UniProtKB/TrEMBL annotation:
Enzyme's top EC category: hydrolase
GO biological process, one term: glucan catabolic process
Sequence ranges assigned to domain PA14 in this UniProt record: 403-562
Protein name: beta-glucosidase
Coiled coil: none
Family matches, as Gene3D superfamilies: Galactose-binding domain-like (2.60.120.260), Glycoside hydrolase family 3 C-terminal domain (3.40.50.1700), Glycoside hydrolase, family 3, N-terminal domain (3.20.20.300), Immunoglobulins (2.60.40.10)
SMART domains hit by this protein: Fn3_like (SM01217)
Pathway: Glycan metabolism; cellulose degradation
Amino acid sequence: MSSLNGEPSFAAFVSQLTLREKVSLLSGNSFNTTPGVERLGIPRIKVADSINGIRPSSLKDDMTTASFPSTTCLGSTWDKELLHRMGERLAHQARLKSAQVVLGPTINIHRDPRAGRNFECFSEDPLLSGQLAAAIVNGLQKQGVGACPKHFVCNDSETMRHFYNVAESPNCRGLREIYLAAWQHMLRESDPVAVMTAYNKVDGTFCSENGTLITDILRRTWGYRGVTMSDWFATRSTAASIKAGLDLEMPFPILRGAKLVQEVESRAVTVAELDQRVLKMLELRDRTKDCHSDEPERSEISDETNAIARELVASGMVLLKNVAETLPLEPSQQLKVAVIGEFANDPVVTGGGSASCKPQYKQKPLDFLQEAFSKHGTVQYAPGVRTRRIIPVAPTAQLTAADGRQGVDVSYFNDDNPSQPILTEFQPVPHVSMLGQHEFKPSLHVPGSRLELTTTLTPSTTGTHTLAVRCTGAFTLSVNNSPILSRAIQPAITTEQFLFNHTLLETRHEKGLPMLAGTPYAIHLVVHSRTELMPHGEPTPYSATLCFEEEYSEETAIHTAAALAQSADVSLVFCGRSAQYESEGFDLEEMAMPANQTALIRAVAAVAKRTVLVLYCGNPIDVSPFVDEVEAVVLAHFPGQEGAAALVDVLTGRVNPSGRLATTWWVRLKEAPSFGAFPAAEGENGVEIRYEEGVRMGYRCEDLARRARWPFGFGLSYTTFRYGGLCLVVDEEAEPARLMCSVEVSNTGGREGREVVQLYVRPSKSQSAWRPERELKSFAKVQLQPGEKKVVKLQVDLKVACSYWDEAALTWRLEEGTYGVQVGSCQQEFNVMKTRAWNHL
């Protein structure tokens, strides 16, 4: 047996390992590495987040990386071939960061439009999620870099994700037909080297030690042969996780290491059980190429990578509304274009959390629009309102340290010697962040210390300005030796909230502080360490950030934008959300647009000749307050570093939009099937979530036409398509039996375009169990020139197409009856689909 590299297999070394060497292989030894065994030449394994951009090893590293669009954008492409090519480029990026395994893709389901991490997941539909994920996995692993899809399973909410229980059986229809089905579809078409388990419980047991999920379903039923690893700090037991089939604890040996050695020596864990887990970790090394993980990480701008990133964005952007052919804008028409909104000049690139990254460059839509209309027409800009959940970090240019440099001085003190600093240092940015013992300053006591930040702040304008502090402990902020802001107790936060939900750390001077332009103000911030270490072995945070924002008038900003719009032929309004709103670590509280953005949109639309709204978001937005007042709406998602170029390509017609929604946009929040059962809440048995809607989630719900603003699969084009010649054949001689479908698709408009052909199956009316009105079973994307016609062929396993999960018999059941097929698109309405049926006996 040999490895992927043609060398002897590492799996053959199990018998040569000592007990402690075996145990060492079953836990990480840093946030992104697992140890090797030097005496046997067994290399370590390095992992890296994520498919939206391969991040460097250190959380503090400013190294850039190629930034791809968010996974909601990838889902909206409906393009497996393109995502396979993306996977190949991700492998190249992973090698630049010396990683053998990429942590992704994320295939949790869009159950609720408030879920904070939806932007890094594909869809509400399990088949679309699973097949697109498989395409990325195959592209990555074709190049010898492993993929680790996550999070298995039901981490569909961020609120209390370490603790909540999904109070449903793994054998209920909801889990089998929706949440587990996404993984099953992925595993039918790919074989990832690893799978990451979720933080939460399912049916009362944490996913990291849930033998029903890991051993019974994933391994025995589905035949999965790769590694299972915990999410970071998600392992909850020693022996139980080993027996359940969890191979790797990340990121450190908290519940393994010496504890696991003791469990083996006491025979609570058998050597055979241990060896099963060790074998998987050795096989992981056989299935991935050695990426020389000790080499320096680097960032390399690649034309090939950028071209795919741009194609992905253009293919995933969704044209949601386009009255009277407002779009595309023709630069040759000498238009006066008003560009409005801060995102036009400082665009959103990504959501927040482990799927975020620092792009190699940041394009501005404003620059590309000015270039597009430079020969014909004019482009003018108004920034509009500011939209943010937190106050920005005080700008370095307005700060002066004691020695005259731009920045701050920071001193560290231990409580047992409070007058003598153990260290004093200069920093250009008023931000100190330490996470865990390995990042604490040498000799600094935690608990039992404080830091002091001093600087001089000089405002550029006169006004009532806002000062704020974000920190992890009690603090006092003084201006000119007068305390103006303090907090006597530390915020009640978890480590992940420290990392992702910065609003919980922030305290503002709500009334504002009157300050004069050009006048220096002495700033002194004292922040104390937390009074105890974090539980569950998680690293303890210690941070302090000085925040500052000068006063501005929203009323004036909106008035200025409206005046610009009134004089223009067309107004482009850039709005939506950023990583401050959609992120790992917390969920949204509502679907609504930030109120000041709604006011801006309505003010512009009231006076503009034509209004085009560009939306940045990962989650659906309630557009009810303004959608009828604008002529066009373009969903840009979180588009990555090539987003601006691709967006202007779409706006000006250089690219015909071909994205189709991978998730339903509801008329209002209460129409979402999960409304009232999200997020997690305290119940009789602790913190829990119930999937009360069962399989009636997303587009599968009842009364969809009334409840949906724009349904799953919807998206407009600058051209038109026609379907005809639908042919259906059931091949029951094949193994397995298959549904074969062909349909003629014609481009009946005047522009080249790409159409997403969607195949849905309607259940038999004689079914013994309730079934959704229709379910996606296959899809394809086809490119057509004006007047061109192509025959598109689709096929699907008949059991996959027509069966449902029988909860009583614990099996997939295919009942005899007459099933319907819809093939077409949701470009206009559902009724454009062609319907046929056949009898299955």
